[in-house]
Amino acid sequence: MTELSVLADRVAGLKDKPVLCVGDAMLDRFIYGAVERISPEAPIPVLRIEREAAMLGGAGNVVRNLVALGAVPTFVAVVGDDDAGREVGRLLGDHAGIDPCLVVESQRQTTIKTRFFASAQQLLRADRETSQALAATSVRQVLDRAGTLIGRSGSVVLSDYGKGVLSVPVPAELIKVAKECGVPVVVDPKGTDYSRYRGATVLTPNRKELFEATGMNVADDAGIVAACRHLITSCGVGAVLATRSQDGMTLVTGDGQVHHLPAQAREVFDVSGAGDTVVATLAAVLAAGGSLLDGARLANVAAGIVVAKVGTAVAYADEVVAALHHDDLCLGETKVLGWEGARDQVEIWRRKGESVGFTNGCFDLLHPGHISLLTQARAACDRLVVGLNSDASVARLKGPTRPVQSEAARATVLASLSMVDMVVIFGEDTPLDLIRHLRPDVLVKGADYTVATVVGADDVIGWGGRVVLANLVEGQSTTNTIKKMNGK
Protein backbone atom coordinates (compact mmCIF):
# COMPACT_ATOMS: atom_id res chain seq x y z
CA MET A 1 0.00 0.00 0.00
CA THR A 2 1.14 3.57 -0.66
CA GLU A 3 1.57 6.09 2.13
CA LEU A 4 -1.56 7.92 0.96
CA SER A 5 -3.56 4.67 1.01
CA VAL A 6 -2.43 4.04 4.58
CA LEU A 7 -3.59 7.54 5.55
CA ALA A 8 -6.92 6.97 3.80
CA ASP A 9 -7.40 3.80 5.85
CA ARG A 10 -6.59 5.82 8.95
CA VAL A 11 -9.57 8.09 8.20
CA ALA A 12 -11.92 5.08 8.32
CA GLY A 13 -10.45 4.25 11.74
CA LEU A 14 -11.64 7.58 13.17
CA LYS A 15 -15.26 6.47 13.18
CA ASP A 16 -16.87 6.30 16.64
CA LYS A 17 -13.68 7.27 18.48
CA PRO A 18 -14.54 9.22 21.67
CA VAL A 19 -12.96 12.68 22.01
CA LEU A 20 -13.52 15.15 24.84
CA CYS A 21 -13.47 18.83 23.87
CA VAL A 22 -13.30 21.57 26.53
CA GLY A 23 -13.26 25.20 25.52
CA ASP A 24 -14.95 28.45 24.61
CA ALA A 25 -18.30 27.99 22.87
CA MET A 26 -19.39 30.73 20.49
CA LEU A 27 -22.25 31.51 18.18
CA ASP A 28 -21.23 32.47 14.65
CA ARG A 29 -23.88 34.47 12.80
CA PHE A 30 -23.72 35.23 9.08
CA ILE A 31 -25.84 37.95 7.48
CA TYR A 32 -25.89 37.99 3.68
CA GLY A 33 -27.25 40.69 1.42
CA ALA A 34 -26.57 43.13 -1.38
CA VAL A 35 -25.11 46.64 -1.41
CA GLU A 36 -26.67 48.85 -4.07
CA ARG A 37 -26.19 52.33 -2.63
CA ILE A 38 -24.30 54.48 -0.13
CA SER A 39 -26.14 55.79 2.90
CA PRO A 40 -27.18 59.46 2.71
CA GLU A 41 -26.49 59.68 6.45
CA ALA A 42 -22.79 58.77 6.28
CA PRO A 43 -20.27 57.47 3.70
CA ILE A 44 -21.06 53.85 4.40
CA PRO A 45 -22.69 51.08 2.33
CA VAL A 46 -26.31 50.15 2.94
CA LEU A 47 -26.69 46.37 3.20
CA ARG A 48 -30.05 45.05 2.02
CA ILE A 49 -30.33 41.85 4.05
CA GLU A 50 -31.45 38.78 2.12
CA ARG A 51 -30.82 35.90 4.52
CA GLU A 52 -29.22 34.97 7.81
CA ALA A 53 -27.58 31.83 9.17
CA ALA A 54 -26.07 30.70 12.45
CA MET A 55 -23.66 27.93 13.36
CA LEU A 56 -21.45 26.76 16.20
CA GLY A 57 -18.20 28.68 16.42
CA GLY A 58 -15.07 28.59 18.56
CA ALA A 59 -14.69 25.28 20.34
CA GLY A 60 -18.13 24.40 18.96
CA ASN A 61 -16.58 24.29 15.50
CA VAL A 62 -14.02 21.80 16.79
CA VAL A 63 -16.81 19.40 17.76
CA ARG A 64 -18.53 19.98 14.41
CA ASN A 65 -15.30 18.91 12.71
CA LEU A 66 -15.02 15.86 14.96
CA VAL A 67 -18.54 14.78 13.98
CA ALA A 68 -17.75 15.34 10.29
CA LEU A 69 -14.76 13.01 10.61
CA GLY A 70 -16.90 10.31 12.23
CA ALA A 71 -15.62 10.72 15.81
CA VAL A 72 -17.96 10.97 18.80
CA PRO A 73 -17.22 14.16 20.75
CA THR A 74 -18.32 15.18 24.23
CA PHE A 75 -18.35 18.95 24.65
CA VAL A 76 -17.85 20.75 27.96
CA ALA A 77 -18.29 24.51 27.67
CA VAL A 78 -19.82 27.54 29.38
CA VAL A 79 -22.57 29.78 28.02
CA GLY A 80 -24.57 32.66 29.40
CA ASP A 81 -28.20 32.56 30.47
CA ASP A 82 -29.25 34.34 27.28
CA ASP A 83 -30.78 33.76 23.86
CA ALA A 84 -27.39 33.15 22.26
CA GLY A 85 -26.55 30.49 24.85
CA ARG A 86 -29.85 28.77 24.20
CA GLU A 87 -29.17 28.88 20.46
CA VAL A 88 -25.78 27.25 21.05
CA GLY A 89 -27.61 24.49 22.94
CA ARG A 90 -30.11 24.09 20.11
CA LEU A 91 -27.38 23.88 17.48
CA LEU A 92 -25.56 21.26 19.52
CA GLY A 93 -28.81 19.32 19.71
CA ASP A 94 -29.04 19.36 15.92
CA HIS A 95 -25.87 17.23 15.78
CA ALA A 96 -26.79 13.75 16.94
CA GLY A 97 -23.11 12.85 17.28
CA ILE A 98 -22.34 15.48 19.94
CA ASP A 99 -22.85 14.90 23.66
CA PRO A 100 -23.06 18.44 25.13
CA CYS A 101 -22.32 19.27 28.77
CA LEU A 102 -23.01 23.01 28.96
CA VAL A 103 -22.46 24.99 32.15
CA VAL A 104 -24.74 28.04 32.35
CA GLU A 105 -23.30 31.11 34.09
CA SER A 106 -26.02 33.71 34.63
CA GLN A 107 -23.75 36.78 34.68
CA ARG A 108 -21.96 35.79 31.50
CA GLN A 109 -22.55 36.99 27.92
CA THR A 110 -22.42 34.16 25.38
CA THR A 111 -19.86 35.13 22.73
CA ILE A 112 -21.41 36.07 19.37
CA LYS A 113 -19.45 36.83 16.22
CA THR A 114 -21.63 38.40 13.53
CA ARG A 115 -20.27 38.67 9.99
CA PHE A 116 -21.94 40.78 7.28
CA PHE A 117 -21.43 39.79 3.64
CA ALA A 118 -22.26 41.35 0.27
CA SER A 119 -21.17 40.16 -3.19
CA ALA A 120 -18.84 37.52 -1.76
CA GLN A 121 -17.05 40.12 0.40
CA GLN A 122 -17.13 40.48 4.16
CA LEU A 123 -18.14 44.04 5.04
CA LEU A 124 -17.95 43.94 8.80
CA ARG A 125 -17.56 41.67 11.81
CA ALA A 126 -19.20 42.60 15.09
CA ASP A 127 -18.30 40.77 18.32
CA ARG A 128 -20.25 40.57 21.55
CA GLU A 129 -18.46 38.71 24.32
CA THR A 130 -17.30 38.22 27.87
CA SER A 131 -13.64 37.32 28.30
CA GLN A 132 -13.08 37.33 32.04
CA ALA A 133 -12.28 34.16 33.97
CA LEU A 134 -15.11 31.90 35.09
CA ALA A 135 -16.83 32.25 38.44
CA ALA A 136 -15.54 29.80 41.05
CA THR A 137 -18.71 27.70 40.87
CA SER A 138 -18.41 27.43 37.08
CA VAL A 139 -14.76 26.38 37.35
CA ARG A 140 -15.71 23.58 39.69
CA GLN A 141 -18.54 22.42 37.40
CA VAL A 142 -16.25 22.37 34.36
CA LEU A 143 -13.55 20.44 36.21
CA ASP A 144 -16.04 17.97 37.70
CA ARG A 145 -17.81 17.28 34.41
CA ALA A 146 -14.66 17.08 32.30
CA GLY A 147 -12.77 15.13 34.93
CA THR A 148 -15.29 12.30 34.91
CA LEU A 149 -15.20 12.11 31.10
CA ILE A 150 -11.45 12.08 30.45
CA GLY A 151 -10.99 8.41 31.34
CA ARG A 152 -13.65 7.41 28.79
CA SER A 153 -12.07 9.46 25.98
CA GLY A 154 -9.44 8.54 23.44
CA SER A 155 -8.05 12.08 23.47
CA VAL A 156 -8.77 15.53 24.89
CA VAL A 157 -8.91 18.86 23.05
CA LEU A 158 -8.48 22.12 24.96
CA SER A 159 -9.78 24.77 22.55
CA ASP A 160 -8.73 28.10 24.06
CA TYR A 161 -10.18 31.23 22.47
CA GLY A 162 -9.27 33.42 25.46
CA LYS A 163 -12.88 33.88 26.59
CA GLY A 164 -12.28 32.60 30.11
CA VAL A 165 -13.22 28.91 30.11
CA LEU A 166 -9.59 27.74 30.04
CA SER A 167 -8.22 30.29 32.50
CA VAL A 168 -5.97 29.12 35.33
CA PRO A 169 -6.31 26.56 36.96
CA VAL A 170 -8.53 24.67 34.49
CA PRO A 171 -5.91 23.62 31.87
CA ALA A 172 -3.38 22.36 34.42
CA GLU A 173 -5.92 20.29 36.32
CA LEU A 174 -7.40 18.71 33.17
CA ILE A 175 -3.95 17.92 31.74
CA LYS A 176 -2.98 16.32 35.07
CA VAL A 177 -6.02 14.03 35.03
CA ALA A 178 -5.43 13.16 31.37
CA LYS A 179 -1.81 12.20 32.03
CA GLU A 180 -2.88 9.99 34.92
CA CYS A 181 -5.35 8.26 32.57
CA GLY A 182 -2.83 8.00 29.72
CA VAL A 183 -4.99 10.15 27.43
CA PRO A 184 -3.24 12.51 24.95
CA VAL A 185 -4.08 16.23 25.12
CA VAL A 186 -4.18 18.55 22.09
CA VAL A 187 -4.19 22.27 22.90
CA ASP A 188 -5.18 25.10 20.57
CA PRO A 189 -3.46 27.84 22.63
CA LYS A 190 -4.16 31.50 23.24
CA GLY A 191 -2.26 34.33 24.88
CA THR A 192 1.48 34.53 25.51
CA ASP A 193 2.03 32.27 28.55
CA TYR A 194 1.96 28.68 27.31
CA SER A 195 3.39 27.37 30.57
CA ARG A 196 -0.20 26.90 31.76
CA TYR A 197 -0.45 24.06 29.23
CA ARG A 198 2.53 22.22 30.78
CA GLY A 199 2.29 18.47 30.23
CA ALA A 200 0.14 18.68 27.08
CA THR A 201 0.90 16.24 24.27
CA VAL A 202 0.95 18.86 21.51
CA LEU A 203 0.26 22.57 21.01
CA THR A 204 -1.06 23.93 17.69
CA PRO A 205 -0.23 27.67 17.43
CA ASN A 206 -0.34 29.50 14.14
CA ARG A 207 2.65 31.56 13.00
CA LYS A 208 1.40 34.77 14.64
CA GLU A 209 0.63 33.02 17.93
CA LEU A 210 4.04 31.32 17.88
CA PHE A 211 5.73 34.70 17.53
CA GLU A 212 3.64 36.26 20.31
CA ALA A 213 4.39 33.38 22.69
CA THR A 214 8.14 33.30 22.05
CA GLY A 215 9.13 36.72 20.69
CA MET A 216 11.37 34.86 18.24
CA ASN A 217 11.80 35.30 14.48
CA VAL A 218 9.40 32.90 12.73
CA ALA A 219 9.84 34.10 9.15
CA ASP A 220 11.47 30.93 7.83
CA ASP A 221 11.79 27.19 8.50
CA ALA A 222 14.77 27.57 10.82
CA GLY A 223 13.03 30.25 12.88
CA ILE A 224 9.84 28.19 13.15
CA VAL A 225 11.76 25.12 14.35
CA ALA A 226 13.76 27.14 16.90
CA ALA A 227 10.60 28.74 18.31
CA CYS A 228 8.83 25.37 18.54
CA ARG A 229 11.81 23.85 20.36
CA HIS A 230 11.84 26.79 22.75
CA LEU A 231 8.21 26.14 23.65
CA ILE A 232 8.80 22.43 24.11
CA THR A 233 11.69 23.10 26.50
CA SER A 234 10.34 26.11 28.39
CA CYS A 235 6.71 24.97 28.68
CA GLY A 236 7.21 21.24 29.14
CA VAL A 237 5.02 20.04 26.25
CA GLY A 238 5.56 16.97 24.11
CA ALA A 239 5.42 18.57 20.65
CA VAL A 240 4.37 21.65 18.68
CA LEU A 241 2.48 21.63 15.38
CA ALA A 242 2.86 25.13 13.95
CA THR A 243 0.37 26.08 11.24
CA ARG A 244 1.87 28.44 8.65
CA SER A 245 -0.94 29.38 6.22
CA GLN A 246 0.40 29.24 2.65
CA ASP A 247 3.61 27.59 3.90
CA GLY A 248 1.83 24.53 5.31
CA MET A 249 2.68 23.12 8.75
CA THR A 250 5.74 22.20 10.78
CA LEU A 251 5.71 19.42 13.38
CA VAL A 252 8.50 19.49 15.95
CA THR A 253 8.60 16.77 18.61
CA GLY A 254 10.35 16.59 21.95
CA ASP A 255 12.67 13.85 20.72
CA GLY A 256 14.08 16.12 18.03
CA GLN A 257 12.06 15.15 14.97
CA VAL A 258 11.13 17.89 12.48
CA HIS A 259 8.59 17.46 9.68
CA HIS A 260 7.67 20.22 7.23
CA LEU A 261 4.33 19.59 5.49
CA PRO A 262 3.56 21.68 2.38
CA ALA A 263 0.20 23.42 2.11
CA GLN A 264 -2.56 21.33 0.51
CA ALA A 265 -5.06 24.01 -0.54
CA ARG A 266 -5.34 24.83 -4.26
CA GLU A 267 -7.79 27.70 -3.69
CA VAL A 268 -8.03 29.69 -0.46
CA PHE A 269 -11.50 31.17 -0.10
CA ASP A 270 -11.96 31.61 3.67
CA VAL A 271 -9.52 30.66 6.46
CA SER A 272 -12.14 30.93 9.21
CA GLY A 273 -12.09 27.85 11.42
CA ALA A 274 -9.12 26.14 9.75
CA GLY A 275 -7.34 25.93 13.11
CA ASP A 276 -10.38 24.13 14.56
CA THR A 277 -10.16 21.58 11.76
CA VAL A 278 -6.47 21.00 12.53
CA VAL A 279 -6.96 20.32 16.24
CA ALA A 280 -10.06 18.17 15.63
CA THR A 281 -8.31 16.00 13.05
CA LEU A 282 -5.17 15.66 15.14
CA ALA A 283 -7.18 14.72 18.24
CA ALA A 284 -9.30 12.20 16.32
CA VAL A 285 -6.19 10.47 14.93
CA LEU A 286 -4.59 10.30 18.40
CA ALA A 287 -7.86 8.91 19.81
CA ALA A 288 -7.67 6.17 17.17
CA GLY A 289 -4.14 5.27 18.25
CA GLY A 290 -2.38 7.03 15.38
CA SER A 291 0.91 8.88 15.55
CA LEU A 292 1.42 12.63 15.78
CA LEU A 293 2.89 12.61 12.28
CA ASP A 294 -0.11 10.80 10.79
CA GLY A 295 -2.37 13.21 12.64
CA ALA A 296 -0.46 16.20 11.29
CA ARG A 297 -0.59 14.86 7.73
CA LEU A 298 -4.33 14.28 7.85
CA ALA A 299 -4.87 17.63 9.57
CA ASN A 300 -2.94 19.30 6.75
CA VAL A 301 -5.19 17.68 4.14
CA ALA A 302 -8.37 18.54 6.08
CA ALA A 303 -7.28 22.16 6.51
CA GLY A 304 -6.67 22.41 2.78
CA ILE A 305 -10.26 21.34 2.18
CA VAL A 306 -11.74 23.75 4.72
CA VAL A 307 -10.02 26.92 3.48
CA ALA A 308 -11.74 26.39 0.12
CA LYS A 309 -15.11 26.57 1.88
CA VAL A 310 -17.20 29.35 3.41
CA GLY A 311 -17.14 30.54 7.00
CA THR A 312 -16.53 28.22 9.95
CA ALA A 313 -16.63 25.11 7.78
CA VAL A 314 -15.73 21.46 8.37
CA ALA A 315 -13.93 18.71 6.47
CA TYR A 316 -15.91 15.48 6.03
CA ALA A 317 -14.26 12.08 6.16
CA ASP A 318 -15.15 11.25 2.55
CA GLU A 319 -13.65 14.55 1.38
CA VAL A 320 -10.39 13.79 3.18
CA VAL A 321 -10.27 10.32 1.64
CA ALA A 322 -11.01 11.75 -1.83
CA ALA A 323 -8.21 14.29 -1.42
CA LEU A 324 -5.80 11.53 -0.40
CA HIS A 325 -6.78 9.18 -3.23
CA HIS A 326 -6.77 11.92 -5.85
CA ASP A 327 -3.75 14.11 -5.34
CA ASP A 328 -4.80 16.34 -8.22
CA LEU A 329 -8.25 17.02 -6.78
CA CYS A 330 -9.45 19.35 -4.10
CA LEU A 331 -12.95 20.08 -2.86
CA GLY A 332 -13.77 22.65 -5.54
CA GLU A 333 -12.86 20.13 -8.29
CA THR A 334 -14.56 17.04 -6.86
CA LYS A 335 -17.88 16.49 -8.63
CA VAL A 336 -19.50 13.55 -6.81
CA LEU A 337 -20.25 14.71 -3.27
CA GLY A 338 -22.27 13.72 -0.24
CA TRP A 339 -25.12 15.91 0.96
CA GLU A 340 -23.14 17.99 3.47
CA GLY A 341 -20.16 18.50 1.20
CA ALA A 342 -22.55 19.47 -1.60
CA ARG A 343 -24.22 22.13 0.53
CA ASP A 344 -20.83 23.61 1.43
CA GLN A 345 -19.83 23.74 -2.24
CA VAL A 346 -23.14 25.35 -3.23
CA GLU A 347 -22.53 28.03 -0.59
CA ILE A 348 -19.07 28.72 -2.06
CA TRP A 349 -20.61 29.24 -5.51
CA ARG A 350 -23.26 31.56 -4.08
CA ARG A 351 -20.63 33.61 -2.27
CA LYS A 352 -18.95 34.10 -5.64
CA GLY A 353 -22.21 35.44 -7.06
CA GLU A 354 -22.96 32.34 -9.14
CA SER A 355 -26.48 30.98 -9.60
CA VAL A 356 -27.04 27.29 -8.81
CA GLY A 357 -29.33 25.10 -10.89
CA PHE A 358 -30.70 21.65 -10.05
CA THR A 359 -32.15 18.82 -12.08
CA ASN A 360 -32.57 15.16 -11.27
CA GLY A 361 -33.21 11.74 -12.69
CA CYS A 362 -32.11 8.11 -12.91
CA PHE A 363 -29.82 8.65 -15.95
CA ASP A 364 -29.51 4.88 -16.33
CA LEU A 365 -28.33 4.62 -19.94
CA LEU A 366 -27.26 8.09 -21.04
CA HIS A 367 -28.91 9.10 -24.35
CA PRO A 368 -29.34 12.28 -26.46
CA GLY A 369 -32.45 13.24 -24.49
CA HIS A 370 -30.41 13.34 -21.29
CA ILE A 371 -27.68 15.42 -22.94
CA SER A 372 -30.27 17.89 -24.24
CA LEU A 373 -31.86 18.25 -20.79
CA LEU A 374 -28.50 18.77 -19.08
CA THR A 375 -27.35 21.26 -21.72
CA GLN A 376 -30.54 23.31 -21.34
CA ALA A 377 -30.29 23.11 -17.55
CA ARG A 378 -26.69 24.35 -17.56
CA ALA A 379 -27.63 27.22 -19.86
CA ALA A 380 -30.15 28.41 -17.25
CA CYS A 381 -27.59 28.79 -14.43
CA ASP A 382 -23.90 29.28 -13.64
CA ARG A 383 -23.48 25.93 -11.84
CA LEU A 384 -25.52 22.76 -12.37
CA VAL A 385 -26.15 20.16 -9.65
CA VAL A 386 -27.59 16.81 -10.74
CA GLY A 387 -29.56 14.81 -8.19
CA LEU A 388 -29.11 11.11 -9.04
CA ASN A 389 -31.52 8.40 -7.85
CA SER A 390 -29.73 5.64 -5.93
CA ASP A 391 -29.93 2.03 -7.10
CA ALA A 392 -32.62 1.24 -4.52
CA SER A 393 -34.62 4.30 -5.54
CA VAL A 394 -34.44 3.38 -9.25
CA ALA A 395 -35.58 -0.19 -8.51
CA ARG A 396 -38.62 1.10 -6.65
CA LEU A 397 -39.52 3.49 -9.46
CA LYS A 398 -38.63 1.39 -12.53
CA GLY A 399 -38.90 -2.21 -11.36
CA PRO A 400 -36.57 -4.96 -10.11
CA THR A 401 -34.59 -5.23 -13.36
CA ARG A 402 -33.40 -1.64 -13.13
CA PRO A 403 -31.02 0.09 -13.02
CA VAL A 404 -28.86 -1.35 -15.75
CA GLN A 405 -25.83 0.52 -14.40
CA SER A 406 -24.93 0.98 -10.74
CA GLU A 407 -25.23 4.36 -9.05
CA ALA A 408 -21.41 4.60 -8.94
CA ALA A 409 -21.19 4.04 -12.71
CA ARG A 410 -24.02 6.47 -13.44
CA ALA A 411 -22.47 9.13 -11.19
CA THR A 412 -19.08 8.70 -12.86
CA VAL A 413 -20.55 9.13 -16.35
CA LEU A 414 -22.50 12.25 -15.32
CA ALA A 415 -19.48 13.76 -13.58
CA SER A 416 -17.46 13.40 -16.79
CA LEU A 417 -19.80 15.79 -18.62
CA SER A 418 -18.61 19.39 -18.91
CA MET A 419 -22.07 20.83 -18.31
CA VAL A 420 -22.41 19.04 -14.94
CA ASP A 421 -20.70 20.71 -11.97
CA MET A 422 -21.82 18.36 -9.20
CA VAL A 423 -23.55 15.00 -8.75
CA VAL A 424 -25.36 14.13 -5.51
CA ILE A 425 -26.99 10.73 -4.96
CA PHE A 426 -30.31 10.55 -3.11
CA GLY A 427 -32.14 7.46 -1.92
CA GLU A 428 -35.69 8.77 -1.65
CA ASP A 429 -38.36 8.39 -4.34
CA THR A 430 -38.28 12.15 -4.99
CA PRO A 431 -35.50 14.73 -4.65
CA LEU A 432 -37.58 17.04 -2.41
CA ASP A 433 -35.38 16.65 0.69
CA LEU A 434 -32.24 17.21 -1.36
CA ILE A 435 -33.73 20.29 -3.02
CA ARG A 436 -34.60 21.75 0.40
CA HIS A 437 -31.10 20.87 1.61
CA LEU A 438 -29.31 22.65 -1.26
CA ARG A 439 -31.83 25.47 -1.93
CA PRO A 440 -31.05 25.89 -5.66
CA ASP A 441 -31.81 29.12 -7.50
CA VAL A 442 -33.09 27.33 -10.61
CA LEU A 443 -35.03 24.05 -10.80
CA VAL A 444 -35.06 22.31 -14.21
CA LYS A 445 -37.34 19.48 -15.43
CA GLY A 446 -38.53 18.27 -18.81
CA ALA A 447 -41.46 19.91 -20.59
CA ASP A 448 -43.55 16.79 -20.02
CA TYR A 449 -44.12 18.33 -16.57
CA THR A 450 -45.90 21.52 -15.64
CA VAL A 451 -44.61 23.92 -13.00
CA ALA A 452 -47.40 22.75 -10.72
CA THR A 453 -46.29 19.11 -10.97
CA VAL A 454 -42.53 19.59 -10.60
CA VAL A 455 -41.37 18.29 -7.22
CA GLY A 456 -39.89 21.15 -5.19
CA ALA A 457 -41.23 23.92 -7.41
CA ASP A 458 -43.20 25.58 -4.62
CA ASP A 459 -40.14 25.58 -2.37
CA VAL A 460 -37.78 27.01 -4.98
CA ILE A 461 -40.24 29.73 -6.00
CA GLY A 462 -40.87 30.43 -2.32
CA TRP A 463 -37.24 31.37 -1.65
CA GLY A 464 -37.03 33.52 -4.79
CA GLY A 465 -35.89 30.95 -7.36
CA ARG A 466 -37.46 29.93 -10.66
CA VAL A 467 -38.53 26.77 -12.50
CA VAL A 468 -37.41 26.03 -16.06
CA LEU A 469 -39.12 23.41 -18.26
CA ALA A 470 -36.65 22.03 -20.81
CA ASN A 471 -37.63 20.94 -24.30
CA LEU A 472 -37.63 17.16 -24.83
CA VAL A 473 -35.96 15.13 -27.58
CA GLU A 474 -38.75 13.05 -29.06
CA GLY A 475 -38.53 9.26 -28.77
CA GLN A 476 -35.53 9.19 -26.45
CA SER A 477 -35.74 7.20 -23.22
CA THR A 478 -33.79 4.50 -21.39
CA THR A 479 -36.87 2.26 -21.44
CA ASN A 480 -37.06 2.45 -25.26
CA THR A 481 -33.34 1.74 -25.52
CA ILE A 482 -33.67 -1.38 -23.37
CA LYS A 483 -36.64 -2.56 -25.48
CA LYS A 484 -34.57 -2.21 -28.65
CA MET A 485 -31.70 -4.10 -27.04
CA ASN A 486 -34.14 -6.93 -26.22
CA GLY A 487 -35.54 -6.93 -29.74
CA LYS A 488 -38.96 -5.61 -28.75
TrEMBL record:
<feature type="binding site">
    <location>
        <begin position="206"/>
        <end position="209"/>
    </location>
    <ligand>
        <name>ATP</name>
    </ligand>
</feature>
<comment type="similarity">
    <text>In the N-terminal section; belongs to the carbohydrate kinase PfkB family.</text>
</comment>
<keyword id="KW-0511">Multifunctional enzyme</keyword>
<dbReference type="Pfam" id="PF01467">
    <property type="entry name" value="CTP_transf_like"/>
</dbReference>
<comment type="pathway">
    <text>Nucleotide-sugar biosynthesis; ADP-L-glycero-beta-D-manno-heptose biosynthesis; ADP-L-glycero-beta-D-manno-heptose from D-glycero-beta-D-manno-heptose 7-phosphate: step 1/4.</text>
</comment>
<dbReference type="GO" id="GO:0033786">
    <property type="term" value="F:heptose-1-phosphate adenylyltransferase activity"/>
</dbReference>
<keyword id="KW-0067">ATP-binding</keyword>
<feature type="region of interest" description="Ribokinase">
    <location>
        <begin position="1"/>
        <end position="330"/>
    </location>
</feature>
<keyword id="KW-0808">Transferase</keyword>
<dbReference type="InterPro" id="IPR014729">
    <property type="entry name" value="Rossmann-like_a/b/a_fold"/>
</dbReference>
<comment type="similarity">
    <text>In the C-terminal section; belongs to the cytidylyltransferase family.</text>
</comment>
<comment type="function">
    <text>Catalyzes the ADP transfer from ATP to D-glycero-beta-D-manno-heptose 1-phosphate, yielding ADP-D-glycero-beta-D-manno-heptose.</text>
</comment>
<keyword id="KW-0418">Kinase</keyword>
<dbReference type="GO" id="GO:0016773">
    <property type="term" value="F:phosphotransferase activity, alcohol group as acceptor"/>
</dbReference>
<feature type="domain" description="Carbohydrate kinase PfkB">
    <location>
        <begin position="19"/>
        <end position="313"/>
    </location>
</feature>
<dbReference type="InterPro" id="IPR011914">
    <property type="entry name" value="RfaE_dom_II"/>
</dbReference>
<feature type="region of interest" description="Cytidylyltransferase">
    <location>
        <begin position="358"/>
        <end position="488"/>
    </location>
</feature>
<dbReference type="InterPro" id="IPR004821">
    <property type="entry name" value="Cyt_trans-like"/>
</dbReference>
<comment type="pathway">
    <text>Nucleotide-sugar biosynthesis; ADP-L-glycero-beta-D-manno-heptose biosynthesis; ADP-L-glycero-beta-D-manno-heptose from D-glycero-beta-D-manno-heptose 7-phosphate: step 3/4.</text>
</comment>
<keyword id="KW-0548">Nucleotidyltransferase</keyword>
<dbReference type="InterPro" id="IPR011611">
    <property type="entry name" value="PfkB_dom"/>
</dbReference>
<dbReference type="InterPro" id="IPR023030">
    <property type="entry name" value="Bifunc_HldE"/>
</dbReference>
<dbReference type="GO" id="GO:0033785">
    <property type="term" value="F:heptose 7-phosphate kinase activity"/>
</dbReference>
<keyword id="KW-0547">Nucleotide-binding</keyword>
<dbReference type="Pfam" id="PF00294">
    <property type="entry name" value="PfkB"/>
</dbReference>
<dbReference type="InterPro" id="IPR029056">
    <property type="entry name" value="Ribokinase-like"/>
</dbReference>
<keyword id="KW-0119">Carbohydrate metabolism</keyword>
<dbReference type="InterPro" id="IPR011913">
    <property type="entry name" value="RfaE_dom_I"/>
</dbReference>
<protein>
    <recommendedName>
        <fullName>Bifunctional protein HldE</fullName>
        <ecNumber>2.7.1.167</ecNumber>
        <ecNumber>2.7.7.70</ecNumber>
    </recommendedName>
</protein>
<comment type="subunit">
    <text>Homodimer.</text>
</comment>
<dbReference type="GO" id="GO:0097171">
    <property type="term" value="P:ADP-L-glycero-beta-D-manno-heptose biosynthetic process"/>
</dbReference>
<dbReference type="GO" id="GO:0005829">
    <property type="term" value="C:cytosol"/>
</dbReference>
<feature type="active site">
    <location>
        <position position="276"/>
    </location>
</feature>
<dbReference type="GO" id="GO:0005524">
    <property type="term" value="F:ATP binding"/>
</dbReference>
<feature type="domain" description="Cytidyltransferase-like">
    <location>
        <begin position="358"/>
        <end position="453"/>
    </location>
</feature>
